[in-house]
Amino acid sequence: MDGDTKNSTYSKKIKKVSTDNYIECYIAEQNLVGVAIGAACRDRTVAFCSTFAAFFTRTFDQIRMGALSQKNINCVGSHAGVSIGEDGPSQMALEDLAMFRTIPGCTVFYPNDAVSCERACELEANTRGICFIRTSRPATVVIYNNEALFQVGKAQVVRENPGDKIVLIVAGITMHEGLKAADTLATNGIHVCVIDPYTIKPLDADTIRAHALRVGGKILTVEDHYPEGGIGETVACILSTDANITVKRLAVDEVPRSCPPEVLFEKYGNSSNCIVNAVYNLLQ
Fold first, then answer.
1. Does 203 share its domain with 90?
2. Are 82 and 261 in contact (CB under 8 A)?
3. What angle do CA 111, 74, 63 make, to 5 degrees?
4. Residue 167 lies in domain
5. Are residues 161 and 268 in the same domain?
6. Is residue 146 part of a domain?
7. What distance in Å separates the CA atoms of residue 135 and residue 117, rounded to the nearest whole number?
8. Distance (Å, whole) CA 122 – CA 92
């Protein structure tokens, strides 16, 4: 089911494969989710709702009632965060992770490349309850090989070194800025453990905690999302009883403006340069 965004999200490719598998619900997102819930009733179909992530905020009631009714639908929200740049704040999803995390039993995926996104679609289609995949607009390089194993609730340790000084938790578009920052820091003799949480709910607390303790208890989270209800808050909450772990968070802390993505990354702390500076500050 599409919310009249097929040209932007490329869901039109599904329509080319099979018109029987494509339902245009137009710019009526509440109807979009309602149709999906109806189509998925009694497991008659595996229903995917596709639109911009920001537009799912209009459908909270339908999604909430779907969860309470133990329905199985799969939501895919694109154009997340300030990474959409010139499109402006009205279309920048910056509260979507928080919204979907509040849904009982919801599984929240946040892939960062084509391979992890394809696996997320497979996992989502086979996971009970409400599911959400947060996707990005910019073209991103592939960092995982096709044989990489992904699981719900299992993080990926993208980079680690015996001399790591800090754990860097990044997802989606910020993963690529995080890897640039890790390269810059490594040239100056500072190694960081880079973790991709993959699913924000459930979060792999065991992997994050183990590596945090290994590096001395310092964690930096970076996200293209408001601070409230995002990755940083999730990590801080789940590790709140660990007295020896410190969580520093970088997030979009105000309503952004329309601007090129790289300018917005720098302004709101998502750029590799901002990450490098935050690591130095945390290590002081």
1. no
2. yes
3. 115
4. 156-283
5. yes
6. no
7. 8
8. 26
Catalytic residue numbers, as ranges: 29
Is residue 87, in this structure, part of any structural domain at all?
yes
d(CA 97, CA 273): 25
Which residues are registered as beta bridge partners of 221?
A: 169, 249
The predicted pLDDT at position 10 comes to: 86
Separation CA 184–CA 180 (nearest Å): 6
- Compute CA distances 160 → 66, 119, 191, 195, 249, whole Å: 40, 23, 8, 9, 20
Instruction: Name all contacts of 31-39 with Cβ < 8 Å and 24+ positions apart.
Output: 32/1, 32/2, 32/3, 32/59, 33/59, 33/62, 33/63, 33/66, 33/73, 33/75, 34/62, 35/1, 36/1, 36/73, 36/74, 37/62, 37/66, 37/69, 37/71, 37/73, 39/1
The pair of structure tokens assigned to 37 is: 């819930």
Alpha helices for the chain (secondary structure H): 6-9, 12-17, 29-40, 60-68, 96-101, 114-125, 173-187, 205-215, 231-238, 261-267, 272-283
Per residue in 173-231, pLDDT (tens digit) is 999 999 999 999 999 999 999 999 999 999 999 999 999 999 999 999 999 999 999 99
**DSSP 8-state secondary structure symbol assigned to residue 197:** -
CB atoms closer than 10 angstroms to residue 13 = 10
Rounded to whole angstroms, how far apart are CA atoms 176 and 138? 11
Measured CA to CA, the distance from residue 144 to residue 198 in angstroms comes to: 12
> In this predicted model, what pLDDT tens digit does every residue of 228-247 receive, in sequence order?
999 999 999 999 999 899 99
Contact by Cβ (8 Å): 249, 233: yes
